[in-house]
Amino acid sequence: MADRRPLGFGRRVEDTTEAPGAKPVPAGSVALDDRSMAMLLPERDPRGHKGSFGKLLVVAGSIDYAGAALLVCRGAGRAGAGLVTLAVPESLQPLFAAKVIEATTMALPEDDLEEVDPEPSLAKILDHEHDALVIGPGLRPSLATNELLRLLMTLPDEPTPAPVVVDAEALRALASADDWWTATTRACVLTPHAGEFARLRAGSGHEPDEDGDLAADDDARVAAAKAAATEWRQVVVLKGARTVIANPEGVVAVAPFENPALASGGTGDVMAGVIGGLLAQGLAPWDAARLGVYLHGLAGESVRERIGDAGLLASDLPDPVAMARKRLANIAERERTGSRLGFGARDRAAASNGGEAAAPEPGGAPETQPAEDPEPTPTIHRSTPDEPGPRS
User: Fold this and answer.
1) How far apart are CA 308 and CA 302, in angstroms?
2) d(Cα 59, Cα 89) in Å, to the nearest integer?
3) How many angstroms separate the Cα of 336 from the Cα of each of 15, 53, 104, 268?
4) pLDDT tens, position by position, 174-230
5) All residues at 6 or more sequence positions from 215 whose CB lies less than 8 Å from its CB, including other chains
6) Which domains does the chain have, with CATH numbers?
7) Of the candidates 213, 214, 165, 161, which has an alpha carbon nearest to the alpha carbon of residue 183?
8) Are 247 and 55 in contact, with CB atoms under 8 Å apart?
9) Of 73, 128, 318, 339, which is the most buried if we count CB atoms within 10 A?
10) What's the CA gap between 342 and 332, in Å, rounded?
11) Which tens digit of pLDDT belongs to each residue from 131-144?
12) Tens digits of residue pLDDT in 375-388
Protein backbone atom coordinates (compact mmCIF):
# COMPACT_ATOMS: atom_id res chain seq x y z
CA MET A 1 0.00 0.00 0.00
CA ALA A 2 2.30 2.68 -1.26
CA ASP A 3 1.90 6.24 -0.08
CA ARG A 4 0.36 8.28 -2.92
CA ARG A 5 0.03 11.61 -1.13
CA PRO A 6 0.92 14.75 -3.10
CA LEU A 7 4.22 16.49 -2.57
CA GLY A 8 4.26 19.16 0.09
CA PHE A 9 5.49 20.07 3.55
CA GLY A 10 4.64 16.77 5.19
CA ARG A 11 1.74 14.66 6.22
CA ARG A 12 -1.06 16.33 8.12
CA VAL A 13 -2.76 14.73 11.10
CA GLU A 14 -6.02 15.09 9.17
CA ASP A 15 -4.72 12.87 6.35
CA THR A 16 -6.63 9.64 6.09
CA THR A 17 -4.69 6.45 6.63
CA GLU A 18 -6.45 4.43 3.95
CA ALA A 19 -5.10 4.57 0.43
CA PRO A 20 -7.61 5.47 -2.30
CA GLY A 21 -9.50 2.37 -3.33
CA ALA A 22 -8.61 0.45 -0.15
CA LYS A 23 -10.90 -2.47 0.53
CA PRO A 24 -13.62 -1.93 3.11
CA VAL A 25 -13.48 -4.22 6.11
CA PRO A 26 -16.17 -6.88 6.56
CA ALA A 27 -19.34 -5.97 8.41
CA GLY A 28 -18.97 -6.26 12.16
CA SER A 29 -15.29 -5.33 12.19
CA VAL A 30 -13.23 -2.17 12.39
CA ALA A 31 -10.16 -1.17 10.38
CA LEU A 32 -6.82 -0.47 12.01
CA ASP A 33 -5.25 2.85 11.00
CA ASP A 34 -2.36 5.12 11.91
CA ARG A 35 -4.23 7.41 14.27
CA SER A 36 -5.96 4.77 16.37
CA MET A 37 -2.82 2.66 16.63
CA ALA A 38 -0.64 5.65 17.48
CA MET A 39 -2.75 6.29 20.56
CA LEU A 40 -2.02 2.76 21.84
CA LEU A 41 1.73 3.28 22.06
CA PRO A 42 2.97 2.82 25.63
CA GLU A 43 4.49 5.95 27.14
CA ARG A 44 8.25 6.18 27.46
CA ASP A 45 9.40 7.81 30.69
CA PRO A 46 12.33 10.11 29.81
CA ARG A 47 13.99 9.01 33.04
CA GLY A 48 13.20 5.33 32.58
CA HIS A 49 15.73 2.50 32.48
CA LYS A 50 15.79 -0.97 30.94
CA GLY A 51 13.80 -2.39 33.81
CA SER A 52 11.11 0.25 33.30
CA PHE A 53 10.20 -0.91 29.82
CA GLY A 54 9.27 -4.50 30.38
CA LYS A 55 10.96 -7.86 30.86
CA LEU A 56 10.06 -10.51 28.31
CA LEU A 57 10.83 -14.22 28.68
CA VAL A 58 10.94 -16.20 25.43
CA VAL A 59 10.59 -20.01 25.52
CA ALA A 60 11.51 -20.90 21.97
CA GLY A 61 14.02 -22.48 19.64
CA SER A 62 15.66 -25.85 18.98
CA ILE A 63 18.69 -27.09 17.10
CA ASP A 64 16.72 -27.17 13.83
CA TYR A 65 14.89 -23.87 14.39
CA ALA A 66 17.39 -21.64 16.14
CA GLY A 67 16.49 -18.72 13.89
CA ALA A 68 12.91 -18.63 15.14
CA ALA A 69 14.00 -17.85 18.70
CA LEU A 70 16.48 -15.21 17.56
CA LEU A 71 13.83 -13.46 15.44
CA VAL A 72 11.41 -13.35 18.38
CA CYS A 73 14.04 -11.73 20.59
CA ARG A 74 15.01 -9.14 18.00
CA GLY A 75 11.38 -8.29 17.24
CA ALA A 76 10.68 -7.76 20.92
CA GLY A 77 13.67 -5.49 21.36
CA ARG A 78 12.78 -3.37 18.34
CA ALA A 79 9.23 -3.05 19.70
CA GLY A 80 10.65 -1.38 22.80
CA ALA A 81 11.04 -4.14 25.40
CA GLY A 82 13.71 -3.25 27.94
CA LEU A 83 15.00 -6.76 28.73
CA VAL A 84 14.58 -9.98 26.75
CA THR A 85 15.63 -13.40 28.02
CA LEU A 86 15.68 -16.54 25.88
CA ALA A 87 15.05 -19.83 27.71
CA VAL A 88 16.40 -22.93 25.92
CA PRO A 89 17.40 -26.48 26.88
CA GLU A 90 20.69 -26.33 28.76
CA SER A 91 22.62 -28.33 26.12
CA LEU A 92 21.71 -25.66 23.54
CA GLN A 93 22.50 -22.62 25.67
CA PRO A 94 26.11 -22.22 24.37
CA LEU A 95 24.82 -22.21 20.80
CA PHE A 96 22.21 -19.54 21.45
CA ALA A 97 24.40 -17.47 23.75
CA ALA A 98 26.84 -17.10 20.87
CA LYS A 99 24.09 -15.85 18.54
CA VAL A 100 22.03 -13.42 20.60
CA ILE A 101 23.62 -10.07 21.32
CA GLU A 102 21.19 -7.91 23.30
CA ALA A 103 19.15 -10.74 24.83
CA THR A 104 20.32 -12.90 27.71
CA THR A 105 19.89 -16.67 27.85
CA MET A 106 18.60 -19.05 30.49
CA ALA A 107 19.31 -22.79 30.59
CA LEU A 108 16.31 -25.05 31.16
CA PRO A 109 16.99 -28.39 32.89
CA GLU A 110 16.91 -31.46 30.65
CA ASP A 111 15.99 -35.10 31.16
CA ASP A 112 17.52 -36.06 27.80
CA LEU A 113 19.67 -34.33 25.21
CA GLU A 114 17.82 -31.20 23.99
CA GLU A 115 14.71 -32.36 25.88
CA VAL A 116 13.42 -30.17 28.71
CA ASP A 117 12.51 -31.66 32.05
CA PRO A 118 9.06 -30.07 32.55
CA GLU A 119 8.78 -29.58 36.32
CA PRO A 120 12.32 -28.30 37.03
CA SER A 121 12.03 -26.10 33.93
CA LEU A 122 8.76 -24.67 35.22
CA ALA A 123 10.39 -23.88 38.57
CA LYS A 124 13.27 -22.07 36.86
CA ILE A 125 10.91 -20.07 34.63
CA LEU A 126 8.79 -19.00 37.59
CA ASP A 127 11.90 -18.00 39.51
CA HIS A 128 12.89 -15.63 36.70
CA GLU A 129 11.32 -12.17 36.90
CA HIS A 130 9.30 -11.35 33.79
CA ASP A 131 6.27 -9.29 32.75
CA ALA A 132 5.19 -11.40 29.75
CA LEU A 133 6.13 -14.54 27.83
CA VAL A 134 6.33 -15.78 24.27
CA ILE A 135 6.06 -19.56 23.97
CA GLY A 136 6.36 -21.76 20.93
CA PRO A 137 8.41 -20.50 17.97
CA GLY A 138 10.89 -23.16 16.91
CA LEU A 139 10.26 -25.48 19.86
CA ARG A 140 10.99 -29.16 19.36
CA PRO A 141 7.76 -31.21 19.20
CA SER A 142 7.73 -33.66 22.09
CA LEU A 143 5.68 -34.89 25.01
CA ALA A 144 7.99 -33.00 27.37
CA THR A 145 7.37 -29.74 25.49
CA ASN A 146 3.62 -30.35 25.66
CA GLU A 147 3.79 -30.99 29.39
CA LEU A 148 5.84 -27.84 30.05
CA LEU A 149 3.28 -25.82 28.09
CA ARG A 150 0.41 -27.38 30.07
CA LEU A 151 2.11 -26.52 33.37
CA LEU A 152 2.78 -22.95 32.25
CA MET A 153 -0.78 -22.40 31.05
CA THR A 154 -2.53 -23.82 34.12
CA LEU A 155 -0.78 -22.06 36.98
CA PRO A 156 -2.90 -20.99 39.94
CA ASP A 157 -4.58 -17.69 39.14
CA GLU A 158 -3.34 -16.04 42.35
CA PRO A 159 -1.17 -14.10 41.86
CA THR A 160 -2.19 -13.39 38.28
CA PRO A 161 0.24 -15.13 35.89
CA ALA A 162 1.98 -12.98 33.28
CA PRO A 163 0.27 -12.76 29.87
CA VAL A 164 1.63 -14.91 27.08
CA VAL A 165 1.89 -14.98 23.28
CA VAL A 166 1.21 -18.54 22.10
CA ASP A 167 2.65 -19.35 18.67
CA ALA A 168 3.83 -22.16 16.39
CA GLU A 169 4.57 -25.42 18.24
CA ALA A 170 2.72 -24.22 21.34
CA LEU A 171 -0.43 -23.81 19.22
CA ARG A 172 -0.07 -27.34 17.88
CA ALA A 173 0.25 -28.61 21.45
CA LEU A 174 -2.93 -26.79 22.45
CA ALA A 175 -4.78 -28.28 19.48
CA SER A 176 -4.11 -31.76 20.85
CA ALA A 177 -5.23 -30.94 24.41
CA ASP A 178 -8.84 -31.51 25.42
CA ASP A 179 -10.73 -28.37 26.45
CA TRP A 180 -7.48 -26.47 26.98
CA TRP A 181 -9.29 -23.14 27.14
CA THR A 182 -11.26 -24.15 30.25
CA ALA A 183 -8.09 -24.85 32.26
CA THR A 184 -5.95 -21.94 31.06
CA THR A 185 -5.38 -19.30 33.73
CA ARG A 186 -3.25 -16.90 31.68
CA ALA A 187 -4.39 -14.09 29.42
CA CYS A 188 -3.20 -15.19 25.99
CA VAL A 189 -2.66 -13.82 22.52
CA LEU A 190 -2.95 -16.77 20.13
CA THR A 191 -1.23 -16.11 16.80
CA PRO A 192 -2.14 -18.92 14.35
CA HIS A 193 -1.89 -18.88 10.58
CA ALA A 194 -4.83 -20.42 8.74
CA GLY A 195 -3.57 -24.00 9.06
CA GLU A 196 -2.85 -23.74 12.79
CA PHE A 197 -6.19 -22.05 13.32
CA ALA A 198 -8.00 -24.90 11.54
CA ARG A 199 -6.27 -27.45 13.80
CA LEU A 200 -7.23 -25.49 16.91
CA ARG A 201 -10.83 -25.31 15.75
CA ALA A 202 -10.87 -29.03 14.97
CA GLY A 203 -9.51 -29.71 18.45
CA SER A 204 -12.44 -27.67 19.79
CA GLY A 205 -14.94 -29.94 18.02
CA HIS A 206 -15.57 -27.93 14.84
CA GLU A 207 -15.60 -29.42 11.37
CA PRO A 208 -12.79 -28.15 9.09
CA ASP A 209 -15.21 -26.90 6.42
CA GLU A 210 -17.40 -25.08 8.92
CA ASP A 211 -15.36 -21.87 8.87
CA GLY A 212 -15.09 -21.55 5.09
CA ASP A 213 -12.07 -20.24 3.18
CA LEU A 214 -9.69 -18.91 5.82
CA ALA A 215 -7.12 -17.79 3.27
CA ALA A 216 -9.05 -15.62 0.81
CA ASP A 217 -12.51 -14.89 2.24
CA ASP A 218 -12.30 -11.91 4.60
CA ASP A 219 -15.88 -12.33 5.80
CA ALA A 220 -15.21 -15.95 6.70
CA ARG A 221 -11.97 -15.02 8.45
CA VAL A 222 -13.69 -12.36 10.56
CA ALA A 223 -16.56 -14.68 11.50
CA ALA A 224 -14.25 -17.57 12.40
CA ALA A 225 -11.83 -15.46 14.46
CA LYS A 226 -14.73 -13.89 16.35
CA ALA A 227 -16.28 -17.29 17.10
CA ALA A 228 -12.96 -18.72 18.27
CA ALA A 229 -12.07 -15.75 20.50
CA THR A 230 -15.44 -15.79 22.23
CA GLU A 231 -15.32 -19.58 22.70
CA TRP A 232 -11.74 -19.70 23.98
CA ARG A 233 -12.04 -16.42 25.92
CA GLN A 234 -8.69 -15.27 24.55
CA VAL A 235 -7.41 -12.77 21.99
CA VAL A 236 -6.96 -14.42 18.58
CA VAL A 237 -4.72 -13.12 15.78
CA LEU A 238 -5.60 -14.94 12.54
CA LYS A 239 -2.53 -14.19 10.45
CA GLY A 240 -2.44 -13.72 6.68
CA ALA A 241 -3.35 -11.01 4.20
CA ARG A 242 -5.51 -8.50 6.11
CA THR A 243 -4.77 -10.11 9.46
CA VAL A 244 -7.81 -10.40 11.74
CA ILE A 245 -7.65 -9.71 15.48
CA ALA A 246 -10.59 -10.69 17.72
CA ASN A 247 -11.15 -10.42 21.46
CA PRO A 248 -13.31 -12.45 23.88
CA GLU A 249 -16.04 -9.80 23.86
CA GLY A 250 -16.59 -10.32 20.13
CA VAL A 251 -14.87 -7.14 18.93
CA VAL A 252 -12.95 -7.70 15.68
CA ALA A 253 -10.32 -5.54 13.96
CA VAL A 254 -8.77 -5.98 10.52
CA ALA A 255 -5.32 -4.82 9.44
CA PRO A 256 -5.21 -3.21 5.98
CA PHE A 257 -2.05 -4.92 4.75
CA GLU A 258 -1.91 -7.33 1.81
CA ASN A 259 1.78 -7.94 1.25
CA PRO A 260 3.05 -11.03 -0.57
CA ALA A 261 6.60 -10.10 0.41
CA LEU A 262 5.73 -11.23 3.96
CA ALA A 263 5.13 -14.78 2.73
CA SER A 264 8.57 -15.81 3.96
CA GLY A 265 9.68 -18.11 6.75
CA GLY A 266 10.18 -16.41 10.11
CA THR A 267 8.05 -13.31 9.61
CA GLY A 268 5.49 -14.68 12.05
CA ASP A 269 8.21 -15.16 14.66
CA VAL A 270 9.00 -11.45 14.41
CA MET A 271 5.31 -10.66 14.93
CA ALA A 272 5.20 -12.87 18.03
CA GLY A 273 8.19 -10.99 19.42
CA VAL A 274 6.67 -7.58 18.68
CA ILE A 275 3.39 -8.47 20.42
CA GLY A 276 5.29 -10.02 23.33
CA GLY A 277 7.45 -6.93 23.69
CA LEU A 278 4.34 -4.74 23.86
CA LEU A 279 2.75 -7.04 26.45
CA ALA A 280 5.90 -6.75 28.55
CA GLN A 281 5.59 -2.95 28.39
CA GLY A 282 2.19 -3.17 30.05
CA LEU A 283 -0.28 -3.15 27.18
CA ALA A 284 -3.36 -5.32 27.58
CA PRO A 285 -3.50 -8.36 25.26
CA TRP A 286 -6.12 -6.79 22.95
CA ASP A 287 -4.10 -3.58 22.58
CA ALA A 288 -0.75 -5.36 22.25
CA ALA A 289 -2.16 -7.66 19.55
CA ARG A 290 -3.61 -4.83 17.45
CA LEU A 291 -0.59 -2.57 17.76
CA GLY A 292 1.85 -5.43 17.20
CA VAL A 293 0.09 -6.54 14.04
CA TYR A 294 0.04 -2.96 12.77
CA LEU A 295 3.72 -2.26 13.46
CA HIS A 296 4.63 -5.56 11.79
CA GLY A 297 2.51 -4.65 8.77
CA LEU A 298 4.02 -1.17 8.45
CA ALA A 299 7.50 -2.68 8.64
CA GLY A 300 6.64 -5.15 5.92
CA GLU A 301 5.31 -2.40 3.67
CA SER A 302 8.46 -0.37 4.22
CA VAL A 303 10.66 -3.27 3.08
CA ARG A 304 8.34 -4.00 0.16
CA GLU A 305 8.70 -0.44 -1.12
CA ARG A 306 12.46 -0.92 -1.27
CA ILE A 307 12.74 -4.43 -2.73
CA GLY A 308 9.35 -5.30 -4.21
CA ASP A 309 6.95 -8.20 -3.69
CA ALA A 310 9.58 -10.92 -3.25
CA GLY A 311 12.88 -11.39 -1.50
CA LEU A 312 11.95 -10.09 1.95
CA LEU A 313 13.72 -11.99 4.72
CA ALA A 314 12.35 -12.14 8.24
CA SER A 315 15.58 -10.57 9.48
CA ASP A 316 14.74 -7.49 7.37
CA LEU A 317 11.71 -6.70 9.57
CA PRO A 318 12.85 -5.81 13.12
CA ASP A 319 14.66 -2.56 12.25
CA PRO A 320 11.67 -1.15 10.27
CA VAL A 321 9.46 -2.07 13.25
CA ALA A 322 11.33 0.53 15.30
CA MET A 323 10.97 3.09 12.52
CA ALA A 324 7.24 2.35 12.26
CA ARG A 325 6.94 2.91 15.98
CA LYS A 326 8.65 6.28 15.61
CA ARG A 327 6.23 7.25 12.86
CA LEU A 328 3.26 6.43 15.07
CA ALA A 329 4.88 8.25 17.99
CA ASN A 330 5.07 11.41 15.85
CA ILE A 331 1.36 11.12 15.08
CA ALA A 332 0.52 10.55 18.74
CA GLU A 333 2.51 13.62 19.75
CA ARG A 334 0.68 15.80 17.25
CA GLU A 335 -2.65 14.45 18.45
CA ARG A 336 -1.77 15.26 22.06
CA THR A 337 -0.43 18.74 21.37
CA GLY A 338 -2.90 19.69 18.64
CA SER A 339 -0.08 20.91 16.41
CA ARG A 340 -0.61 21.19 12.68
CA LEU A 341 1.65 21.60 9.69
CA GLY A 342 1.54 24.80 7.64
CA PHE A 343 2.19 28.55 7.65
CA GLY A 344 1.11 31.07 10.25
CA ALA A 345 2.11 34.09 12.29
CA ARG A 346 2.71 33.74 15.98
CA ASP A 347 4.28 35.86 18.67
CA ARG A 348 6.55 33.22 20.23
CA ALA A 349 7.36 35.40 23.21
CA ALA A 350 3.67 36.00 23.90
CA ALA A 351 2.96 32.32 23.58
CA SER A 352 5.62 31.48 26.15
CA ASN A 353 4.29 34.14 28.55
CA GLY A 354 0.70 33.00 28.64
CA GLY A 355 -0.42 35.52 26.00
CA GLU A 356 1.37 38.50 27.58
CA ALA A 357 3.84 40.40 25.42
CA ALA A 358 7.42 39.84 26.50
CA ALA A 359 8.99 42.70 28.44
CA PRO A 360 12.14 44.25 26.97
CA GLU A 361 15.35 43.06 28.52
CA PRO A 362 16.94 45.49 31.04
CA GLY A 363 19.40 47.78 29.36
CA GLY A 364 18.08 46.98 25.94
CA ALA A 365 17.44 49.58 23.30
CA PRO A 366 14.08 51.32 23.71
CA GLU A 367 11.42 50.08 21.34
CA THR A 368 10.22 52.48 18.67
CA GLN A 369 6.54 52.07 17.85
CA PRO A 370 5.69 52.72 14.22
CA ALA A 371 2.65 54.77 13.39
CA GLU A 372 0.98 51.63 12.09
CA ASP A 373 1.80 48.06 12.98
CA PRO A 374 3.25 46.38 9.94
CA GLU A 375 1.87 43.07 8.74
CA PRO A 376 3.50 40.32 10.76
CA THR A 377 6.14 38.32 8.94
CA PRO A 378 4.88 34.81 8.18
CA THR A 379 6.80 32.15 10.04
CA ILE A 380 7.03 28.56 8.88
CA HIS A 381 6.15 26.27 11.76
CA ARG A 382 7.70 22.90 11.17
CA SER A 383 6.57 19.73 12.81
CA THR A 384 8.56 16.55 12.85
CA PRO A 385 7.79 14.69 9.62
CA ASP A 386 6.77 11.08 9.70
CA GLU A 387 9.35 8.46 8.92
CA PRO A 388 9.23 7.28 5.32
CA GLY A 389 6.78 4.50 5.02
CA PRO A 390 3.60 3.44 3.28
CA ARG A 391 0.20 4.73 4.09
CA SER A 392 -1.85 1.86 5.23
Assistant:
1) 10
2) 9
3) 16, 22, 36, 32
4) 999 999 999 999 999 999 999 999 999 999 999 989 999 999 999 999 999 999 999
5) 194, 240
6) 30-335 (3.40.1190.20)
7) 161
8) no
9) 73
10) 18
11) 999 999 999 999 99
12) 443 333 333 444 44
